[in-house]
Amino acid sequence: MPPTAPLAVLGATGRTGRRVVEYALAAGRPVRALARTPSALGDLAAPGLTVVGGDATDPAAVRRLLDGAGPVVSALGGGTTADPGTTRSEGVRRVAEALAALGRPAERVLVVAGGGILDAPDGRLRQDQPAFPAVFRRVSEEHRRAWEAVRDTGLAWTMVCTGDIVP
Known about the structure:
The chain has a 6-stranded parallel beta sheet with strand order 3-2-1-4-5-6, with helices on both faces. It is an alpha/beta fold. The relative contact order is 0.16. Helix 2 crosses helix 3 (87-101) and helix 3 (87-101) runs parallel beside helix 4 (137-151). Helices cover 30% and strands 19% of the residues.
C-alpha cells in the first residue's frame, strides 16, 4: 500500500478510536472508520474520512473497511467491566481473515489493549497479581484473548497496552 493509503480504524467511535481518527485527519492522513452507528462520527465530517457502516465481528463489514485501506488500528472496546463481550478478540480474527482474503496476510496491525496483560516481575501477567483490581479482571481476560488472537494470526502486529484510558 502507498504511504498515503487510508488508515483503517476499528472502534472508531470509542474513546481511543475516535482520537486516532481525529489525530490522523488533523495530520492529513485519510481514514476509513468502521462504525456500527455511522452517524456517531457525523461531527467529524472531513475530507479524507470515509465511514464504513458495520460491526467488527461481521466478516463482510471488516472486509469492506480494509479493501483499499493501508495500516490497521484496532481500538475495539465494548461491553462493560462485568461483561466485556468478545468484540476485541473476534474483531482481530476478522481483520486477519479479511487481510488474507484481500491478499495482504503480512499487513501490520496495531491493537490497543489494557495493561493487565503485560508481564509482571514474577513471570505471570499483571492481571494475575493479587493487587490487580478485581473490577478489571474480566475485561483484562478479553484483552488477553485479543492478544492471543493477534499472536496466532501470522500478521505483523504491535499491541499497545495502556492503563485505564480516560477522555
